[in-house]
Design a protein that fits this description.
This protein is mainly α. The protein contains 12 helices and 2 strands.
Amino acid sequence: MRRDIPPLDEVRRITQKKRDAWWTVLLVDPVATPLVRLAAMRTRVTPNQITWGAFVLGLGSAVCFWLADWRWLIAGAVVYHLSFVLDCMDGKVARLTGQGSVFGAWLDFVFDRIRVMVCGVALMAGQYERTGDELYIWLALAVVGLDTLRYINSLEIFKIRHSMRKQIKERVREARRAENAAELAFMEDLLRDNPEADIDHDLRKTQAAADEPEAPQERARVVDLHQEFRSRFPVYLRLRAFLLRHRIRTHLISGIEFQMGVFMIGPLTDQVLWATVVSGALLLLFELAIVYKLLLSTRDFTRTIDSFARQPLRATH
């Protein structure tokens, strides 16, 4: 049954994330987004059904990897990428049609982890049977372990950042109950709302709004919990602005690129060992960079909390 679906440009605006992995932006979205529009217009497929389809294709790619012959490796890489395209489509269909659910998010997460685990074990087991090299057994453990590690790290960092923001907001609420205090804004939120603007521009714009005498109620104190990181790495500002103009997040080697290195580049080039080692090393490097950024952010947090005691959040009239 045909549905009233907006034009493709509008579908892109609704379904595509403001920031995403470069692999998704460059190699998946150009295919997935038109397919999402077509699926929404011509079928009654649900996001959960697409999630199941992606999972089944993932298991199919694992079978190909286990057979280990170079022809099967190529087939496995192609099927894995098709599985990933479907995996990206389920969320887009949910956003476009309003069929998203909490259970669907859980199903997507669990199936992703199972797919990586099964494909990792199957790929390395096939290579072990093919070569007799015991290193592939360790690589299977490494693939599963790294995929788990990045999710644990991401979850813990999210919890710490949420806790820091919550404490800052509580300080502001206390100040506002006692006096006419300034509004609070986080720099990362300003940039998320306007991802194409660079940081200096937002700072100037926010400061100008704070200095405007006609509208004191709109003034805001901007809290930047990444200030020390940006001051130490000024080139990051230019790189970030360039990437965001193309919807690419600065975490260039994330779990997505790691999976594609292991399950696509390695099998397609018949260099599974080296592709896995390089992909794993790059993933660890970027995860360590995120931890370092968090460390600097906690210092910004401490300075911000201390500044509340020295300078009340009072709006000037």
